[in-house]
């Protein structure tokens, strides 16, 4: 079978299914984020402890991603992704019956493990099934699904928890996710270019060490770690800022802040196209600069300008993620699923570790401290990109010489 090309019927059918998969993954994963201030209030816990409802999920997800890549190498792509989405959706419904914070954390840990069956395998599926010239657009559409899912989960959770309860909010996300999971099963074509890998532990170990020995991939892994950590930190604690004077927003109003994810939906697709046309380096540099400018704007006291800053920051972040994740598939010529899982391991570990650290920073320094922490993440990401581009240049020179 030919590879899937942009503009064809198969392209839109497959991209639509992957969009739905990304939607479910992020709707579930980040459904607790707008509830962190509510958890602090109801369970009398500090922000750093409340953030565990998200950080533990992303942390276990990161570790489980490494295992899921190996399993998919034996059992195929679609089945693993489909079961991952369906089971995590059912667990989301169960979490709405949690009697206390500890029970919720335990379910969120299990959810992180089950969710691991989607992200890295989806990246590998795109890398295997789509035409090379269509990779940026296809990955951009998948990432846009994650942004829409993240936005939907946060807004719906914020509204329902404000008018009813956080338990009903999580249950609603679970039910919607079950429906989208069934859509994914029905529409995603069976993989055609997948080759089963009967890998033993030593084979998997060597594939991971091979990728970790690549300077260019290490730079991309580090960029994912830093930027996702900064992104989650901003959205983890901006709710704490906005429910305080002089803003005094309620849960519904804070939830609607996440409408800025629409900018991420647009940027992930458009920056993916720009990377295909103009090169990944210039597109990533521009996206990083956009992130930093938006972050600085959140220091302005005006609520309107602060929200605009968050929107600009979100636009830049999703552009970065779309470019970096697609770049991993280009550099990793072999064992693409393992390479994707390593990228996402660092990506979600950044969410877990930096996101939790942000709780302590917020407690000590409030919003200026949060901005400083995220700013450091972006600056370090700039330095890693510089190293990456030098590595790309040296690789191209070597390739031409040989």
List the helices and strands and how they pair.
Blueprint lengths: L8 H21 L6 H8 L3 H4 L1 H24 L2 H18 L5 H15 L3 H11 L5 H29 L2 H22 L13 H12 L2 H28 L8 H5 L5 H18 L1 H18 L5 H29 L4 H66 L1
Describe this entry's structure for a reader.
The protein has 402 residues and is mainly alpha-helical. It has one domain (9-187, 199-401): MFS general substrate transporter like domains (Growth Hormone, Chain: A), CATH 1.20.1250. Helices cover 82% and strands 0% of the residues. It has helices at residues 9-29, 36-43, 47-50, 52-75, 78-95, 101-115, 119-129, 135-163, 166-187, 201-212, 215-242, 251-255, 261-278, 280-297, 303-331, 336-401. The longest helix has 66 residues, at 336-401. The chain is globular.
Characteristics of this structure?
402 residues, single chain, 16 helices, Growth Hormone, Chain: A
The helix/strand order is HHHHHHHHHHHHHHHH
Strand share of the residues? Answer: under 5%
Estimate nothing, just give the exact number of structural domains: 1
- How would you state the average pLDDT, rounded? 85
Decide which structural class fits the backbone.
Answer: mainly alpha
- What CATH architecture label applies? Up-down Bundle
How many DSSP-defined strands?
A: 0
| The named CATH superfamily | MFS general substrate transporter like domains
Task: Count helical runs.
Answer: 16
Inertia-based shape: globular
